[in-house]
Amino acid sequence: MNKDNILPSDTNMKITLFSELSVGISANSVLFFAHLCMFFEENRSKPIDLCIAFLSLTQLMLLVTMGLIAADMFMFQGIWDSTTCRSLIYFHRLLRGFNLCAACLLHILWTFTLSSRSSCLTTFKHKSPHHISGAFLFFCVLYMSFSSHLFVLVIATSNLTSDHFMYVTQSCSLLPMSYSRTSTFSLLMVTREAFLISLMALSSGYMVILLWRHKKQVQHLHSISLSSKSSPQQRATRTILLLMTLFVVFYILGTVIFHSRTKFKDGSIFYCVQIIVSHSYATISPFVFVFSEKHIIKFFRSMCGRIVNT
């Protein structure tokens, strides 16, 4: 493993990566602050605001951790020890899992919240925050146990060169695993993530069915001109579908690029593109929330008004 040639000499990749991280960190900070403030307001204390705040906080921490890892890739030139390597790589992998869990549970909570009174999900509406908190803790423990092998496999290799190591940063590398262990961990990861993505897809599909039924009922009661106006349920469903589409597209692209990287023996271009693509959802999703939820814009306008008045 020749670390001098592992990264592309073109600085465009480095600029693109750090630009994405900077934009994502700023956007998630704004979204986290807005929903946290709205949650603690007396007239608007909805569990959905706390869930979105937690998702944005998870994405914020994920991008900050990736920024530290990228700094060692492009700037520090291998100054970390094994403890630092293991801690940061494990924490980053853990945050990626938390991000998937938070996105999945947000879709489910959104489905419970927007379901009609005649829906079979009505009985779970008031109990959903407690059930979702328990489910999230369960998946967190699951991710922590499944990623524990990184404490053994990640080592500091700043002064070592070997074709058997997989490059992570200038300081850190992954030790090779046997075929059976690699297959086992890959199967567990695919099963876990396929299950969570399936839950997201089922909740999104259920919301599409509810929206279609609601639209048919409205067309019977109102004229076409009145029913063409988007309701809050329609806007929320479009947001859910857009977030779901973005997540699936970036996940599939990241998986394809990862396997391409493995096939071409740690190609530097594939590695950088994989990092950029795998963090694109965390960068773009805050803008979807901000521009689709009008109360966020109203909240910032009211805050600006208070600041001006003071």
Write structural notes for this entry.
The protein has 310 residues and is mostly helical. The protein has one domain (11-309): Rhopdopsin 7-helix transmembrane proteins, CATH 1.20.1070. Helices cover 76% and strands 3% of the residues. It has eleven helices and three strands. The protein has helices at 11-40, 47-76, 82-114, 128-146, 150-153, 179-221, 224-227, 232-263, 268-278, 280-292, 294-309, and strands spanning 154-156, 166-167, 172-174. The chain has a three-stranded antiparallel beta sheet with strand order 1-3-2. β2 and β3 (172-174) form a beta hairpin. α1 crosses α10, α2 packs antiparallel against α3 and α3 (82-114) packs parallel to α6 (179-221). The longest helix has 43 residues, at 179-221. The relative contact order is 0.13. Mean pLDDT is 76; it is low at 223-228.
In short:
By secondary structure, this protein is mainly α. It has helices at 11-40, 47-76, 82-114, 128-146, 150-153, 179-221, 224-227, 232-263, 268-278, 280-292, 294-309, and strands spanning 154-156, 166-167, 172-174.
Helices and strands in order, then pairings?
Layout: H1 11-40, H2 47-76, H3 82-114, H4 128-146, H5 150-153, E1 154-156, E2 166-167, E3 172-174, H6 179-221, H7 224-227, H8 232-263, H9 268-278, H10 280-292, H11 294-309
Antiparallel strand pairs: 1-3, 2-3
Helix pairs in contact: 1-2, 1-9, 1-10, 2-3, 3-4, 3-6, 6-8, 8-9, 8-10
Mean pLDDT: 76
And the CATH topology?
Rhopdopsin 7-helix transmembrane proteins
The CATH class turns out to be Mainly Alpha
Low-pLDDT windows of residues: 223-228
Number of strands: 3
Strand/helix succession = HHHHHEEEHHHHHH
